[in-house]
Amino acid sequence: MYTGVQLSNKNIMFELSPLPFSKDAFEPHISARTFEFHHGKHHAGYVTKVNALTEGTPQADWSLEQIITDPHTSIGLFNNAAQAWNHEFFWNCLSPQKMVPLGDIADMIAQQWGDFESFCDEFVKAGAGQFGSGWVWLVHNGEDLEIRSTANAETPLTDGGKPLLVCDVWEHAYYLDYQNRRPDFLKVFIEELANWEWANQQLN
Length: 204
What we know:
Elements: E1 6-7, E2 14-15, H1 32-54, H2 64-69, H3 75-92, H4 103-113, H5 116-128, E3 134-140, E4 145-151, E5 162-168, H6 175-178, H7 182-193, H8 196-203
Antiparallel strand pairs: 1-2, 3-4, 3-5
Helix pairs in contact: 1-3, 5-7
């Protein structure tokens, strides 16, 4: 499974991967300044903390997925490892070119929600209704697609769900550009910025 944050063979440390796009690729929807803080401060901070918490332990050689799904992982390490993984996954869920669902995922969306517009409405509703910080996911649960919101660092990886797409609804993801208008940010994400090629790759 995709890990995002890479292990350095030289230092045996987790590293912050670069963004898969330029910081200004999404203006005016998401500003370069937001990415500077979101990736360069918040995401980087989680990676730094994972290194500090795993230094000198067997977990320094684990993947982030192993750390996240191990039942003995401490809450502090889980929170930082899951946030590092979630953020890396989120960057890949963004596309500078507008896409629409195609192929298998388009068929499944049509089957379950009737049409793309209805799916988008439900996705925005789920993300806007997440109390406090968290994430809203499109997940394959083994049979069907499911829209799921999670609090804080929680991720579908812990209960066997396969993440296909995610939007970050922590305030640092949108506040510089949207202030308190989280639903507007979610609507832009799912209708204009979502990387449906990535989602199909995860499904298949």
